Structures are given as C-alpha cells and as structure tokens.
C-alpha cells in the first residue's frame, strides 16, 4: 500500500499487496476516532473524549456540555485510552483479512510480521517467518489505536494549516473501505467507444469516431458468469438503431430529459427524434458557424445545453484573435450565457473537450492544454474559477495527465478517467484528489469515456487494440463505500 504524506490526498491503491509500510497512517485515515477538530464545537483541536453512542470525538469543554444535555444523558463518554475496538476497527480488520496472500492464493492475511513489515498468512509463518516477531492483525490494530490516542494532539497540530482540511478529512478517513468491483462486461462490434451516454440502466447511445456514427445499444446485463472470475458477467450488446451517413460525423453526444438524442457535427448542434411512423428525423438546434463546437452536455437542472466552442481548426498556440469558450443555449438554440475569461480577464480555456454540470450549480470542463496533457477546471454559474485539477503526483501518474471524460456519483464525487495513465481520479467537490484507482487492476486496458446510471453503477467505454479482431467493450463497475 502506498500513501501520500499529505492527509488530504489519497490511498493510491485500494488493494493490499502484502506490504504495509505506513500502517499507523492508514489507521489514522480509516479510524473515525481521528478527527482534526472537535465534532461538536468544530474549533478545538485538543481532543480527549469519545461518545460511543453518537460516535463523536469531542474536546474537554464539549464533554461537559454533551453530558449535561438531557437527550444524551444515557450516553457513554470515554477517554481515548479506554476505547474498545469499535465497529470501524472491525471493518479495518475485515478489509485487510479478506485480501488473498500474494504468495499463497488460497490463504488470506491474518498476521503482521513486525520484523519484515509485511502482512502474512499462516503458510507464510511456516515457510519464512517462524522465528520473526509477528502478531495477529486484530492485536496490531488495537495497539495502533492506543498509540493514536497518545499522538492525536500532535497529529492534529501537524496538519491544522492544511488547506480545506475539514472537507478532506471527511472524504479521506474511510477511503480504505472504498472498493471498485467490475461486475459486468458488455461486448460490442464497434472499433472504439469515444463518447457514451446512458438513456437508462440497460440502454446507451455510443459515438464511435472510427465508424463515424452513433449507435443505440441495448445492454444485455443478464449474461453468464465467466470461468475466470465468478463475480463477473459477460454478455453481448444488441444494436437497436444506428445514425450514420456522410453528413453525420458526430463529435459528441448527450440526451435531454425526454430521452431525445442530441449531437454536434460540423458547426451544428442537432436533435434526433422519431416521427409518427417511427422514422428518424434530424433537425438543427443551433448553427454556431463560423465557430466550431467541440463538446456538448445537457444540464437537466437548468434545461440548457452547454457547448464548448473554438474558432475554426483547433490550435494550442493561442493568439489575441483566438476564441475558446463554453456557452449555454436553450432548447430553441438561444444563447443564455458564455464563459471565456476569469474576473482578471485571463483565458479560462485552451481547448474545451468535455463538459459536465456538477452539484451546487457549477460546471466542470476538461481543458486540453496540449496534444498530450489536459486539466479539469471547475466554474460556478457566475463564471468564477473555483479550482483547477492538474499535475497529479508522479508516484501515481508516471505519464502526463490526459483526462478524456468525467462524471459524478450519487454522493457528489467527481470521477475523471485518465487515458494516458489508465486510471480513475476521484475528486471531492472542492477539487481535491481523494482516491486513485488503476483501470488495469480492474481488467480495463484502454478507458476513454464514462457515465453513471440511475442505480449508481459506473459505466466505462474503451477503445481496443488496432490489431485486435474483437470490438470495444463496455464495463459496468460497482463502487462500494464512496
């Protein structure tokens, strides 16, 4: 397990690979007893007490207030040093012990070798660690809890000046409990899945640039279990309809509240509907000529379309005449708002390629900075720059950060797919990186696009190897604990 030294960062790998070089810090993140400030007054950092009934960590002053409130009169408030192993500690132990030993696949971790600083199983003890100093995982957790109680005040002091520590501590302390599980693979005949939007939990519209068409897929999620992994299902998709032709050449797609498909092609935003004879009709919503739309997103809260625009051919060398903006247009194609400059009159975008509306009325934009790098920018509806996410730690991303799509979970976490590093970056609403998940560890080689369904599952569209005879896959992922 590899952990960043900053408390508002992340667990870079949610799995445990046998090594546990920073076990104490891991427990600090996972144990709900560790709060940077008192959970009652939100100010004091001199934390000494814990209410076992309402599960709050409190300071000396609030301990007396808490005890005098009639509603809490029967609650048990104890000193840190008297705290037994609670439900969170048991969850930590269960999380560790469910992982298979890296050497003995049929065994799970039950011990910790103090000599080698490794998680080990019973077979490991017999083979290599019989004369070493080792302990049960539960024993080590208990010892670490007592140690944390003694060092909690210095821990709080060390990080009290950390930016946005309140939101970061809420997001990060239980991230060890987060688990990405690939539950279903849906095969397609498409060479690539560049853009996708889910019409419902079992239907998607797919934009394949190689095929220069939009395909309506029925996602068969009944399928069958694979022989390799019994928890994962595999099935084939069914092409219900295809929108193609010389004049189509779609660049991005979205759907409105009615379930109608919209896409951008050439200089236009187009709407796809069915007439009374169930024939496909395509009408223009807005012609942006001479500007060229690069991406589109439907904001259901405002019932508008957000479109990323550039002047002519895209270029990363900007001049005074360059135009890079995001505009909001209504269903009739009328311009309602535009975002282009900061309050200091600096350009917001180099090349906007993806847009997503987020909680509290904001928007996130993937901005392509060069041919190989990008960033994520967040704005409020007034156009003020809230935060920028770029240059993640080299320990996580050896290649340049290259975001290609983003979506939001039901818990308002932002998931960004990084194609260059084949990984998912999970951000909190403040733009802090709180978790990093390798797609390769999930068996997903070339992730390109994302969407979440109404049930909270994450869907990932991919490209396939140019030498492969198989089509690109769609992957359904269950995220626990996020």
Automatic annotation (TrEMBL):
<keyword id="KW-0863">Zinc-finger</keyword>
<dbReference type="InterPro" id="IPR047153">
    <property type="entry name" value="TRIM45/56/19-like"/>
</dbReference>
<keyword id="KW-0862">Zinc</keyword>
<protein>
    <recommendedName>
        <fullName>B box-type domain-containing protein</fullName>
    </recommendedName>
</protein>
<dbReference type="Pfam" id="PF00643">
    <property type="entry name" value="zf-B_box"/>
</dbReference>
<feature type="domain" description="B box-type">
    <location>
        <begin position="33"/>
        <end position="80"/>
    </location>
</feature>
<dbReference type="InterPro" id="IPR011042">
    <property type="entry name" value="6-blade_b-propeller_TolB-like"/>
</dbReference>
<keyword id="KW-0479">Metal-binding</keyword>
<dbReference type="GO" id="GO:0008270">
    <property type="term" value="F:zinc ion binding"/>
</dbReference>
<dbReference type="InterPro" id="IPR000315">
    <property type="entry name" value="Znf_B-box"/>
</dbReference>
<feature type="domain" description="B box-type">
    <location>
        <begin position="101"/>
        <end position="137"/>
    </location>
</feature>
């Amino acid at each position: 397990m590899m952990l960043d030294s900053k408390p508002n960062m992340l667990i870079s790998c949610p799995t445990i690979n046998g090594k546990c070089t920073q076990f104490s810090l891991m427990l600090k993140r996972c144990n709900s007893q560790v709060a940077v400030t008192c959970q009652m007054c939100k100010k004091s950092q001199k934390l000494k007490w814990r209410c076992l009934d309402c599960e709050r960590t409190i300071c000396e002053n609030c301990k007396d207030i808490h005890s005098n409130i009639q509603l809490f009169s029967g609650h048990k408030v104890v000193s840190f040093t008297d705290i037994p192993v609670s439900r969170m500690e048991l969850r930590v132990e269960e999380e560790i012990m469910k992982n298979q030993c890296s050497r003995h696949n049929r065994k799970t971790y039950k011990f910790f070798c103090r000599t080698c600083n490794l998680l080990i199983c019973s077979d490991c003890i017999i083979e290599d660690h019989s004369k070493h100093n080792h302990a049960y995982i539960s024993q080590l957790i208990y010892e670490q809890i007592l140690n944390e109680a003694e060092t909690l005040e210095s821990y709080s002091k060390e990080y009290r000046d950390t930016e946005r520590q309140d939101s970061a501590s809420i997001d990060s302390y239980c991230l060890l409990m987060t688990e990405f599980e690939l539950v279903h693979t849906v095969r397609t005949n498409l060479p690539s899945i560049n853009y996708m939007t889910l019409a419902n939990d079992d239907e998607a519209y797919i934009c394949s640039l190689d095929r220069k068409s939009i395909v309506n897929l029925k996602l068969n999620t009944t399928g069958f279990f694979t022989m390799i992994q019994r928890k994962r299902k595999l099935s084939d998709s069914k092409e219900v309809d295809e929108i193609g032709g010389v004049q189509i050449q779609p660049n991005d797609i979205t759907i409105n509240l009615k379930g109608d498909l919209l896409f951008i092609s050439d200089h236009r935003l187009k709407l796809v509907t069915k007439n009374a004879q169930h024939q496909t009709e395509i009408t223009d919503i807005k012609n942006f000529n001479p500007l060229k739309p690069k991406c589109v997103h439907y904001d259901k809260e405002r019932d508008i379309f957000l479109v990323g625009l550039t002047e002519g051919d895209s270029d990363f060398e900007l001049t005074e005449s360059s135009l890079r903006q995001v505009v909001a247009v209504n269903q009739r194609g009328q311009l309602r708002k535009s975002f282009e400059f900061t309050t200091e009159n600096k350009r917001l975008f180099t090349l906007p390629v993806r847009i997503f509306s987020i909680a509290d009325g904001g928007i996130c934009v993937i901005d392509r900075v060069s041919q190989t790098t990008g960033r994520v920018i967040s704005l409020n509806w007034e156009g003020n720059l809230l935060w920028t996410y770029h240059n993640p730690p080299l320990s996580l991303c050896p290649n340049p950060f290259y975001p290609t799509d983003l979506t939001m979970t039901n818990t308002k976490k932002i998931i960004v797919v990084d194609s260059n590093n084949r990984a998912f970056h999970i951000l909190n609403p403040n733009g802090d990186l709180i978790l990093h998940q390798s797609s390769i560890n999930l068996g997903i080689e070339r992730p390109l696009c994302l969407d979440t369904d109404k049930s909270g599952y994450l869907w990932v569209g991919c490209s396939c190897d140019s030498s492969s005879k198989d089509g690109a896959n769609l992957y359904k992922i269950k995220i626990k604990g996020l």
